[in-house]
Amino acid sequence: MPVDGYAVNWAAVVIAAAVGVAGMAVMLLGSFLLAPRRPSEAKAIAYESGIRPTPLAWTQFTVRYYIFAILFLIFSVEAVFLFPWALVFLETATYVFYAMIMFIAILLFGVAYAWRKGVLQWR
Amino acid sequence: MNADFTLLIPEFILAGAGFLVLLVDLLLPREQEHRRNAFTSATAVLGLAVTGVVAATTQMNTGESFHDGLLFIDRYSLLFKVLFVGIGIAVVVMSVDYVAEKMSHPGEYYALIIFAVLGATLMAESGELLTAFISIELLSFSLYVLVGLSRGDARTAEASTKYILLGAISTAIMLYGISQLFGVMGTTRFTEMGGLLAAAGDWDMTLISGFVMVLAGLGFKLSMAPFHMWAPDVYEGAPTPITALIATLSKAAAIALLLRFLAEVGSGAVHEWRMPLAVLAAATMVIGSLSALPQTNIKRLLAYSSIAQIGFVLVGIVPNTVIGANAVLLHVIGYAFTNLAAFTVVIIIELKLGKETIADFAGLSKRAPVLAMIMTGALFSLAGLPIFAGFLTKFYLFTSAVDKSLEWLVVVAVATSVISLYYYIRIVREMYITETEDESKLPVPALLGLLAWVLFAGTIAVGIYPAPFVDATNAAVTVLTPWVAL
After folding, report:
1. How far apart are CA B424 and CA B428, in angstroms?
2. Where are the domains of chain A?
3. A106 contacts in chain B (CB < 8 Å)
4. Least CB-CB distance to A3: which of B3, B5, B200?
5. Residue A19: pLDDT band by 50, 70, 90 thresholds?
6. Distance from A56 to chain B by nearest Cα, in Å?
7. How many other C-beta atoms can be found within 10 angstroms of the C-beta atom of residue B466?
8. With the CA atoms of B45, B48, B52 and B58 taken in that order, what torsion angle do they form, in degrees rounded to the nearest 10?
9. pTM score of the predicted model
10. Which terminal CB of chain A, N or C, has fewer other CB atoms within 10 Å?
């Protein structure tokens, strides 16, 4: 049973994390102790490549785009699975072909469902 | 490798039924809310019933492993498949009036119940950690949406947010645990893991933490202490039929998976996990029973009572024997009947009175004598009084623990049973003794009344004539291979 070694492998991760945290702490502490502090109004503005940040962040924006994002997800996930399948399906067993047809059919159902429920209308 | 897809015909029917429900919902005009509700629920019941009948008639003698043990199609999974389909039908039936009155989107509602049943079924079948994980996710995602489906209620929003956030955390913990177990053993199949564990000497840190994290993830689904905090809020905020679904379906599915996992993987190393799990079982029983005492909301009370019930089930899992597993399966069946009967009565009260506190049950024996009787029966069964299912199944559970000299655990179990009797009797007292001014008769909806009768009959059947159920659990347990050799 390959028990030994697994935990040991993680030692590298733990060391890297410890070094990272320690390094960050030293840097933040160093700048906190060494840096001179002369606050001014111009310095307090968020940096937007020199452009004055306007309007305020507390404005309304439409959230309706999330539904389009979800619909887009259907197609992008479909494409991710279709590419590898298209490359190999000639050599694989027959059921792989039908499995993919079923997968596409389910996603198509999702699109038809969204359409019929009126998601694609901008109301 | 066995890739015989005909083994999965019941699951295909179930998935198809889910889509069919959505399709029926799409094809009916949007304005006819009531007709959509009726048609979609009827389709859902039909799909579930066909699945159950097909599984029970074709897979009675099947004992196959699909794809080298990704899924096991055997008597064990058949028992749970039929149980889950039954729970699904009961929940759909008890939802019809509730959805018509309180909710919109009937199509999504019933389809998600079917997908939850599908996820639960796959959990009971899975013989491999990642398959189990995906099945858990299918069940959980359906439940997350169902809990939040009646929008516009602040408690529902709270329940749904808590459920999804805590669920996500527990999922992450479980997945990390799976990755550690895979890292150590190089496999996620239960049977192979079982062999490796039996051969291993002392467990190292990685193995222990992986095992603990997988159990923690399952413990969350079971609402086992110390992972029970979410249960009362979610139970209270969810639509009541969905509360019933969580209390029965998701608990039974998690027990099915836990039992198979511990039997196949853990049997060779029982001494490593028996004591910790026994302590958790005791903690679950004590916390569940004591926290139920001050509750005033019936749904919160049933939530704590279900936590305590999970503790009792763990009493049967801890010994890791054939008798214990038999008792667990029998208790799960009896508990499903009992709890669904209790929730049916709660739904009727909620629909007729619009309230759900224990005080609202006052004078129920005069206002609706049949409902009061069924509720009393269900509560006595939960407490473990004779002629009802709970007495017999608890008796088996405790006996199995004594066999492995876990007497202290049985003492805790009996003590908490007595405590639980107190808070169950409180409801009975409200119904039969407390006087009310309003003594008008409560009209009982025909469908819900019939369902309550059927479930009540089931509760008594398990209690006085358990032979057919015991036969089924016996046949189910014998497929868990490691025990046959013991």
Report:
1. 7
2. 6-37, 65-116
3. 19
4. B200
5. very high
6. 29
7. 18
8. 120
9. 0.89
10. C
* CA dist., res. B190 & res. B266, Å (int): 9
Distance between CA atoms of residues A75 and A81, nearest Å: 10
Q: What values do phi and psi take at B357, rounded to 5? A: -95, 165
Q: Which two tokens stand for residue A88?
A: 């190999």
pLDDT in tens, B146-192: 998 887 778 888 999 999 999 999 999 999 999 999 988 889 999 88
Averaged pLDDT score across all residues of chain B: 91
Residue with tokens 């049950």: B361
Distance CA B252, CA B54 (A): 21
What beta strand segments (E) does B332-477 contain?
none
Q: What is the largest CA-CA distance in chain B?
A: 70
Please state the rounded mean pLDDT for residues B428-444. 86
- Using a 10 angstrom Cβ sphere, with 0-12 exposed, 13-18 middle and 19 or more buried, the burial of residue A85 is middle
Residue B485 has pLDDT above 50, yes or no: no
Q: Cα–Cα distances in Å, from B391 out to B59, B259, B330?
A: 31, 22, 11
Tokens at B248, concatenated: 């029965």
Phi/psi at A48 (nearest 5 deg)? -125, 55
For residue A65, pLDDT over 80 is answered with: no
Instruction: Sort residue A118 into left (φ over 0), alpha (ψ -120 to 50) or beta.
Output: left
Q: How far from chain centre, in Å, is Cα B448?
A: 21
B17–chain A Cβ distance below 8 A for any pair: no
Is ipTM over 0.95?
A: no
CA angle at B19 for the pair B18 and B20, rounded to the nearest 5°: 90
Burial class from Cβ neighbours inside 10 Å (0-12, 13-18, 19+) for residue B27 reads exposed
SS3 B103: coil
Q: Do the Cβ atoms of A109 and B183 come within 8 Å?
A: no
Q: What are the phi and psi torsion angles at B404 (to 5°)?
A: -100, 30
Residues comprising chain B, all counted:
486
> Is B206's CB within 8 Å of A7's CB?
yes
**What's the gap between Cα B183 and its chain centre?**
31
Do the chains contact at B26 and A116, CB–CB below 8 Å?
Answer: yes
pLDDT tens sequence across B63-109: 888 888 899 999 999 999 999 999 999 999 999 999 998 888 899 99
> Which stretches of B223-321 are DSSP H helices?
230-237, 240-245, 251-266, 270-292, 298-317
* Count of residues in chain A: 123
Cα B364 from Cα B434, distance rounded (Å): 9
Average the pLDDT over B391-396 and give the result. Answer: 92
At B147, list the tokens: 């809990």
Write the DSSP symbol of residue B438. Answer: -
